[in-house]
Amino acid sequence: MKRTILLLLSVFTCATFASGQIVTWNFENTTDATSVADGIYASSVNISSGSFRFQSGEGGMIGYGSHWSQSSDLDKYLEFSISADAGYSFDISSFSLQLGRTGSGPQHFTLQYSFDGFSSSVFTIGSGSITSTNSNSLDSFNLSGNLPIDSVTGTITFRLYGHDASSTGNLRVNDFEIFGSITSLSAIPEPSTYTAIIGIFSLGFLLWRRRVKP
């Protein structure tokens, strides 16, 4: 009976209700997030300098920006963030994206995140080489290292840097996808859950009566 009560309390106080893909930016003529799971907020994707544009490419439309760093310095980037709504937390299990470039565009990228808007704490998720110069066949990357897998109740800001360009070429981007789970910290059960709870209490009561019956 005690275990039953503890189980019911856990249903009321904490429930994971979304697991899998929690945010997507598909760059179909917009930098806004095109799919966001309940319990979190996702910003649009902004570029640190210059303008962000769109062109035909893999899957329909892709985004691009020009004039990237011709050195390894991380001085130009795309920035975006996700935040937990009040009463929710989230964790991240992996980050996937597609990248390409023009012939003189950035040959490498670095993806980082911060909990304080890059004021002090900065963490690198991963980096890699960008080889595709075909707008209809971008390079695909799946990054799962050094991600915030613990429950996050605040905001995470991401920056995607492009560097080592040979001139003023373009960095092409498509399908940013974040995978993880979202947890309600004070979940309110659905009506069907109430029915299950009543059934569990009834069963527990019957078992208790059998144990105490002489």
Please give a structural write-up.
Strand 5 and strand 6 (60-66) form a beta hairpin. The chain has helices spanning 2-13, 191-212; strands at 15-25, 35-36, 40-42, 46-47, 52-57, 60-66, 77-84, 88-101, 108-114, 123-129, 139-143, 155-163, 170-184. With 214 residues, the chain is an alpha+beta fold.
Kindly report how far apart the N and C termini lie: 18 Å
Q: Estimate the strand proportion.
A: 35-45%
Low-confidence stretches: 2-13
- The helix tally amounts to 2
| CATH superfamily caption | Galactose-binding domain-like
Shape: elongated
Helix-strand makeup class: alpha+beta
**How many domains make up the 3D coordinates?**
1
**Helix/strand order:** HEEEEEEEEEEEEEH
Largest sheet geometry:
7 strands, antiparallel
| Radius of gyration computed on alpha carbons | 23 Å
> What is the overall pLDDT average?
87
Task: Kindly state the number of beta strands.
Answer: 13
CATH C-level = Mainly Beta
Helix coverage percent? 10-25%
CATH fold call: Jelly Rolls
- Named at the architecture level, the CATH assignment is Sandwich
What are the salient characteristics of this protein?
214 residues; alpha+beta; Jelly Rolls; seven-stranded antiparallel β-sheet; six-stranded antiparallel β-sheet; 2 helices; 13 strands; disordered N terminus
